[in-house]
Design brief:
- This protein is α/β, with parallel strands linked by helices.
- Among the domains are: about 80 residues; about 70 residues; about 100 residues, no CATH class; about 190 residues, P-loop containing nucleotide triphosphate hydrolases (Rossmann fold, 3-Layer(aba) Sandwich).
- It is built from 27 helices and 15 strands.
- Strands 10-11-12-8-13 form a five-stranded parallel beta sheet, with helices on both faces. Strands 2-1-3-4 form a four-stranded parallel beta sheet.
- Strand 14 and strand 15 form a beta hairpin.
- Helix 2 crosses helix 4 and helix 13 crosses helix 20.
- The longest helix has about 35 residues.
- The chain is elongated, with a radius of gyration of 42 Å.
- About 35% of the residues are buried.
- The N terminus is likely disordered.
Length: about 675
Amino acid sequence: MEKNSAGTDILYSRLNAIRLKLKDLPGVGQRIRERLIEQYGDEQRAVEAVLAGDLSGLAVAVSERQALLLIRHGRCLRHSTAPDQFLATEEAARVQEKLIDLLSGYAHTDFARQKIMTLFASGCPQIIEENGSLARAAAAEAEKMKGRGLEKLLKGVRPLRERPPTRVRERAVAATTVECFSALKARGLDRLIDLHLTESPSELSDLARSYSHVCLADGREGPAEVERAESLEDWYLVPEAVLGYYKENLESLLAAAKAAELLRDGGVAGFSQWKDLEGLLSRLEESGDREEERLKRLSDNLNAVVKRAEAWANEELKQRIERSSLTLGGSDLLLAMNARDGVRELLQAQMSGIFKEVIKQALSRAAADLELAGSESARLEEIFATEAAYPLEIDRQALHSFQQDIRSRREERGLKARRELARLLQDQKKAASDQVHALMDFDFRYALGCFIVEKNLAFAQFAPEPCLSFNQGRHLFLDDPEPVSYALGDGDHPETVSLLSGVNSGGKTTLLDLIAQIVILAHMGLPVPAAACRLSLLEEFYYFGKSRGTLSAGAFETAMKKFAIVENEKRKLVIADELESITEPGASARIIACILDQLNRRRSMAVFVSHLAGEVLRYSETAVRVDGIEAEGLDENNNLRVSRSPRYNYLARSTPELILDRLVRTAKGSEREFYVRLLSKFR
């Protein structure tokens, strides 16, 4: 097969693009047409992208499934063929569909499964050669990577999602001029973070007290608690908006990164350009700053812990006071009578020991539930630093101030790291998308390669003359198939048209299915389930399955019209299973003989399964070979013992003949004579 040059393909694509319109492509309506034009700039470039198979570009404008279908159609246009051109019957299409399902079972991503569904059998040498090159490379990659744990990683690779960023609520951005405020709002910053126009220092100070962090965006100096922005880009003002995309897709991105690393280690080319991205993703995956995490836990737990400590302290004070008694000396009594607040002061003095002890225990309980560091213990004491009184009331202002301080320190500590990572990742979105697409596309090849390796498939050799021969063919839809060999049109068996005879359940239909599998896979450009195979390049393949009984006159007429294909000059293979069932046996033999003769005269190939092989031969005018799947006999349970590979130029015995033969050997007397007479009618 001659290979087109890349330059010729490009020229052909451009010539096609000039003539072709997007609306001529299947599934392209007005909305998709507009998206494709927006993606590529104009209609001609969009058509060229379809013809060139620009998957990554097309997937930006349409779904991946739609992009794959467009590419398949573009490929057909490039080679002047169509997906349904080669398989000429429903039964042939059914076999291809089952092969696609079998192959899809090796894929780990929906993308790979969808791409596998775009494969089709064709009589186009260029498509067969392209797929063959792909399949050979895929098998080599599968051999390298099997058993390395790649499968689990590929299952985690999924298309990247783009969702609106989560709004940041604990920080704010301030502008002191209308111009700056309007510019930030126009670009949508207010949808990502609270944006304020503050026209006075006091407003800015009030704003700083309301948020854990405020950034002043117009470059002016503000209060000490307000940060002056060093950049107005999103990575600085709202790094979460940049990082959110990567965090949303982190599982898929990490799976892709780890898979790419595994592929590099396995010697698979094409996965080295994303090392920088992989390093950044690893940083994003890391648990983060331990101090920032501690501050987060402290902020999350502080209010609840203080509330529990306050409740415990009040209950403890109540119980202790109820168990206490007060003894007054004379001087204490005079103090209580003379001073205005004497009783209160006296009670506080008498109970101060209990109060201090309870507060100390409450602080100890609270500290045990919090992870305090440095001066934070003193800040906690300020919350409980109240006079001896019942019920105990904590200092709410001190609690609020402590909480604000924690949030500010946490925000300051984490914000710097987030900004740095967001700055590095802001331009990596295309690289991330490309890597994921590359891994999903590799999964397509890997599925193909694993299918080839596991099923031990071999590439067929295409021959110029009409022929089909294979050794040790294995039916792919059976769990434990018996290898079968068969040939048409080769040196030892030059006939290209054959009748296949044999016992019921001997494997005749299974052989037709195997022939169909081999022919379809070979014309998909994929290797076949045989130790060796040689066949001619076909333009059409016909598979007529077994009919469910005699057809009515109208149905018979329809069936006969299907067989008018014998008159076309295309290179074809026709296989049929018990065609005689469509009408009466006598008429069937004549019809089959006529069809086979015409196929012979047209230099086409055919294998027809028939129980009327002898009768068909009587009406045949050309060299029709009769082969037989021979039963070696019946076992003790009347099960067939069969050699599945057909014997050439041999009319196999039928199942009734085998049973009668067994009865002749086991019966006696007049009964045996009866069986002998019956058996003689078969010979």
